[in-house]
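S2.1 Query sequence (Probable N-terminal region of alpha amylase (Partial))
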Amino acid sequence: MNRPAAMGATVCAPGKIRFRLWAPSAPPALALEIEGRAPIALRPGPDGYAQAIVDGAPGLRYRYRLAVDCAVPDPASRLQDGDVHGHSVVVGPDRYPWRHTGWRGRPWQDSVIYEAHAGLCGGYAGLRRRLPEVARLGVTLLELMPIADFPGPRNWGYDGVLPYAPDTAYGTPDELKALIDAAHGLQMGVMLDVVYNHFGPDGNYLHRYAADFFDARADTPWGAAID
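Output structure tokens follow.
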């Protein structure tokens, strides 16, 4: 069975990056802007997807241009440089050298859950250093409060707008992976508290190019509800 191409920016072949955006109501000016390169005009197809494959490697900084005065991050960004309004960054998710590759989880009925706010524990790296102490309490499952990128340096996590980009106020994606890796080494699982029923009030641009994502008939404190 053929799987659909992933959203966002992915390494699709050596030296090649695929940029894929669902933008069924995008303005005619829609373009991919990679820092240091000429803009690439994008035209969504009948299914609403716009795509470009370019030469490149992880580390490229990019945004999508909607108008002369409006450039937005990738809604499927895996890393932001400059908070939720800044550039998205291409990452190579397979580059981290996992140590505890034999981890297969624990029975759910064995779960002793410890919920933590990464920012209050010194970020991903700070929390990783505390894991042995947490494990000695008998904890078998670490639950992280929401880490999706949110505006500003501090937040409980419920105002996230980029669900695939771990907030850099807590550290890098590799530091998050190192935290998870260390937990597995202590026979501890990791799960995320996630927010899928709304976006935060600042930094969500989907309504500018994917209006069908929302249902204007259902209002919420954060605007139109997700359809």
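The first strand starts at residue 8 and ends at 13. The radius of gyration is 19 Å.
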